[in-house]
Amino acid sequence: MSLKEKIIKELEKRWFPDLKFLFSEEVLKIIPDLLVELLKKEEDEFEKLLEEKIENITFKKLRETDEKLDYLFALIWHLDSVNKSDITEKIIEDFEPKLVEFWNKQAYSEKLYKMHVYVRDNEELDQEQKRIIDKAIKSFERNWIALEKEKQDQLKKINKDLAKLSNDFSNNIVKDEADYELVITDKESVKDLPKDVLDWARKLAEEKDIDWYIFTADPTGYIALMEYCTDSNIRKKFSEDWNKFASKWKFDNREIILEILRLKDKKAKILWFKNFAELSIDPKMAESPEQVLDLIWWISDKARKKWLSDLEEIKNYYNLDSIEAHDVAFYSRKLKEDKYDLDEKELKKYFEYEKVLEYLFNHVQSFYWIDLKELDIKTYNDEVRIFEVVKDWKLISYYFIDPFYRKEKRSWAWANNLRAKDLDKWFLPVVLNVCNFLKSENGKNLISMRDAETLFHEFWHALHEILSESKYSELSWFHVEWDFVELPSQINENWVNSEESLKKLAVHSETWKNISDELIEKLENLKTFNSGIQTLRQNEFALMDMMLYSDNVPKNVSELDKKILDFVNDNWLFKRDESYKMYCSFGHIFWWGYAAGYYSYMWAELLEADVFERIMQMWMFDSKTWKKFVNTILWQGTRKPANELFRDFMWRDLDNSAFMKRKGL
Length: 665
Ligand SMILES: [Zn+2]
Hints:
There is one protein chain. The protein is built from 29 helices and 7 strands. Helix 20 crosses helix 26 and helix 26 crosses helix 29 (about 655-665). It folds into 4 domains: about 5-105 and about 110-145, Glutathione S-transferase Yfyf (Class Pi), Chain A, domain 2, CATH 1.20.1050; about 180-245, no CATH class; about 250-340 and about 530-600, Neurolysin, domain 3 (Orthogonal Bundle), CATH 1.10.1370; about 355-525 and about 600-665, Neurolysin, domain 3, CATH 1.10.1370. The radius of gyration is 25 Å and the shape is globular. By secondary structure, the chain is an alpha+beta fold. Strand 4 (about 385-390) and strand 5 (about 395-405) form a beta hairpin.
């Protein structure tokens, strides 16, 4: 069998893919050719479909595609996200324009549109099929249908250019971050940092034969240094450096940002929207940019008051006249220790990564009736763990997790799928989580409570996909309204931070004792501590996002810088100077799908707080209430519009008061 045949066979396999093989050097060499070949096949199939007489078109025929192309591209995309190399980057760079061209061909095909309309009007469809067809028709109509050919061509070109720009944007960040190092020579200033973080920083220094500490762009190290380093100048430098990625190191994303803004604005205007924000919000749960902005301002007002009182508390306790942005984390952590007697380093000992994961799996077994069974398979990295997901004694999906920080990995954490769930198809879905926890050099992998929440959060995105009941992938997690999609993940963070669950989850990694009532009480006392500044920070990003996608596009880089700096200084609590370039690495809105949608986090938390309050009216472990949640929301995917899903559970519309209460606003 030739190598190519072997790869094809691997892609056709129903089971978990042999990633070690697929990501091997010899395979990567022929992937570019193979992608082109698979694409050609898809294009031919599509042409054939278009030649069909419309009377012969059925729902089934419209969905007939060969999954191998998407699957292979998703695999490469994943590899590039977790083990970035010139090879994967080049494959994507070369192939993606061709792929987008094909997507354009489908998305702007009048014949295909008419076929959908024909099926809607002539075939007897069940509820789910009807929803899929309606959604597709709507998307055709929103995206172009009444436009003349010339405008359509402009849109196609914009789509292609945007795909390239956002890739470049993201690559620049990963590369800049991978190169970044901060050498700390003053050992005294970092002596209070958690031991695992220091060990790691020490190891990086030793690898370079120096006697100090090296900090990189890994988020755990960043947070630890900002909280524990006693030298304010180092904290200042580190936070400024972190706000400069892809602006002042090797790469500069600002021209790319301008071009993205220009193209999105142009696209929106071609489609008769006032600006891109309106286009972005059109298919979402929110009604208009104005509605979103009103809500953000209303919350920000209250959050500002809360922050001022938190700030007073810090200033009074430490006799400070003023406090700078880079000192907030340091003094907040200190206040927690000195006044509230909470030691975060001690708390971390209750969250050993492997144990948290085990608790998570036990939890889903009792509340969601699924089992995760680990498989002994080698992949591209030894830390990756793979599981079979079993429900009612039936294998329904694969899940894998790639948990630890590597510098070739994209930052933070996410969920994704390599193959979507589709019960109509032969294969099993492959769903994944990637995190950036710090791997311990010697001993146990302790993560922070916030990391544990992240793990729960991302796992529920994965579960939302795995458990969508619909037969069709078009109705699963990834297609849910973007300002609703965070609801299930956010609600399950409560399994980490709620008293009753914490008692079971948090077990000390050395003494094996469960967390004490006393420690829980301390955490309870701090529940709304700094909620004002956290809310304001999220809102600042959301407002910046909305502003950029609804105002006139800046003419040049200096106008862009000024616009953002003015905005930040008008709205943020601390003055920033020219060095502030955080937006150059704001991947959510320039690369990932949150353009004019960053507000979604807050929006979904409003929904989530409301739902969770309802759940807690019973009991955190009340399986009946969770069953209702699963039935009405999680299993539904996007079988119904999000508003309806919410109402099915709550029997009413959203009430903001639970969110405000939780945040102490
Ligand atoms: Zn999320």
